[in-house]
């Protein structure tokens, strides 16, 4: 066998994560007197694909000690990938410096590997600097570079650059990059972009209709809730219940509460709370306080008072705000006796008078 054949065999073994076979093939090649950088590179790659960082670095050190060959730019690119996959950014930058100090030149793989590592580590400034040095140098960005930058801009919520990059590779993204489309949707849902709903809905059309993602559904619920689009929000909530999605963040629940409050839809809020309780969603005192306020505004005082029992069922104690809501509900329609009773209960618990209460 030629050294090139050994290298291909070692690489194939590495990609199937058969490290034992890769190591055996490498030893056979060395015993046959076939020493070159390609063999070392292949074994480094085999260890990299199996996540064996220390062994990959050990092979690199052996290569440096071998007088018959020396590291190539491919060797350094593999080492960059080894450290990048492990989020060892400092080590990766040491390798970049070693390339700068040698007579070797960066390749497109060098740039893309470094950019990918910075994206994974969420180091946006370094990602951008590496990209700019690429743009200004002899090696120009390719499609893979732009895909990496698009992902980086989306994760960093840099919508302006995300959209510019998307325009450059839109056809490629739309055809086969569903995960990246979802990442862009996340970026819009987390932003304050004035046209985010239209942009999100346009991107959603590119995702297969039978594909459901729990996280995406929750992000969309929050966006529609924040935009006051209650019907769209409820459609997604219903879909979440059907797929047994469980919302665990208070922020999403408060966005839903706010949407119902702005729509003055207390009965729909009450229905949602019942479903959320049964589905194991993250409950919070604000859910019940909002329902009490809305019942009070509609003079549905018995239902307002009944919310207290619901709170106790889920171990939400009565706070000063709870009593203040009760006080406002009774006093606003002249139920003086009940209002004074609430004040007495507040004094008993050490809360004092409601902040704007004035009972003569």
In short:
The protein has 360 residues and is mostly helical. The protein contains 21 helices and no strands.
Structure description:
The protein is mainly alpha-helical and 360 residues long. Among the domains are: 146-208, no CATH class; 212-283; 284-359. The protein contains 21 helices and no strands. It has helices spanning 3-15, 19-31, 37-49, 53-65, 73-85, 89-101, 108-120, 124-136, 143-155, 159-168, 170-176, 178-189, 196-204, 214-226, 230-242, 250-262, 266-279, 285-297, 301-313, 320-331, 336-348. Helix 4 (53-65) runs antiparallel to helix 5 (73-85), helix 9 packs antiparallel against helix 10 and helix 18 runs parallel beside helix 20.
Strand content: under 5%
Distance between the termini: 102 Å
Mean pLDDT, all residues: 93
* Strand and helix order: HHHHHHHHHHHHHHHHHHHHH
Alpha-beta content class: mainly alpha
Helical segment count = 21
Using only CA atoms, what is the Rg? Answer: 31 Å
Unreliable segments of 5+ consecutive residues: 356-360
- Total strand segments: 0
How would a textbook summarize the main sheet? none
Broad shape: elongated
- Helicity, as a percent range: over 70%
InterPro entries: PPR5-like, PPR_rpt, TPR-like_helical_dom_sf
GO molecular function: mRNA binding; RNA binding
Protein name: Pentatricopeptide repeat-containing protein
Pfam families: PPR_2 (PF13041)
């Amino acid at each position: 066998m030629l050294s090139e054949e050994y290298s291909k065999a070692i690489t194939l073994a590495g990609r199937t994560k058969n490290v034992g076979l890769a190591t055996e093939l490498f030893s056979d090649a060395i015993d046959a007197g076939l020493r070159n950088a390609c063999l070392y590179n292949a074994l480094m790659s085999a260890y990299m694909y199996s996540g064996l960082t220390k062994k990959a670095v050990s092979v690199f050190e052996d290569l440096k000690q071998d007088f018959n060959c020396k590291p190539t730019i491919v060797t350094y690119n593999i080492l960059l990938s080894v450290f990048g996959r492990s989020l060892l950014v400092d080590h990766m930058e040491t390798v970049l410096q070693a390339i700068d100090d040698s007579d070797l030149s960066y390749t497109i793989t060098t740039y893309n590997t470094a950019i990918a590592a910075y994206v994974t580590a969420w180091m946006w400034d370094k990602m951008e600097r590496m990209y700019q040095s690429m743009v200004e140098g002899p090696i120009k960005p390719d499609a893979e570079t732009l895909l990496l930058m698009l992902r980086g801009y989306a994760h960093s919520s840099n919508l302006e650059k995300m959209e510019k990059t998307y325009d450059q590779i839109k056809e490629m993204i739309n055809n086969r990059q569903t995960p990246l489309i979802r990442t862009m949707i996340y970026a819009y849902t987390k932003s304050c972009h004035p046209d985010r709903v239209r942009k999100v809905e346009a991107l959603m059309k590119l995702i297969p209709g039978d594909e459901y993602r729990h996280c995406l559904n929750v992000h969309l619920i929050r966006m529609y809730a924040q935009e006051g689009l209650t019907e769209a929000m409820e459609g997604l909530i219903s879909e979440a219940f059907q797929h047994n999605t469980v919302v665990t963040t208070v922020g999403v629940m408060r966005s839903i509460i706010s949407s119902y409050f702005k729509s003055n839809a207390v009965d729909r809020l009450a229905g949602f709370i019942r479903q959320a309780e049964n589905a194991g969603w993250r409950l919070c005192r604000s859910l019940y306080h909002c329902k009490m306020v809305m019942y009070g505004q509609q003079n549905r005082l018995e239902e307002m008072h009944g919310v207290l029992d619901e709170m106790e069922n889920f171990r939400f104690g009565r706070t000063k705000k709870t009593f203040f809501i009760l006080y406002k509900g009774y006093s606003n329609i002249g139920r003086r006796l009940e209002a004074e009773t609430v004040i007495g209960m507040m004094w008993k618990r050490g809360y004092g008078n409601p902040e704007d209460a004035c009972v003569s």
